[in-house]
Amino acid sequence: MTTERYWVVGGEYSCMAFKSLKGEGPKVLGPYETREEASEVWKRISRETRSGATTRFAIASEQLVLPA
Description:
68 residues
């Protein structure tokens, strides 16, 4: 059986090219069982950080193969 989990990842980047993050690395939120849950968190964190031109977040998915 295969299932999918979702994560919201991102943070503040060092420049507008969005190649490397500042500080300790990415901020990771999750896991979430549905894309809709992750999307709600992404919307919230994006609203909270919208004034930062070099801050970006995205939704990532992970496929898990569960034992039968």
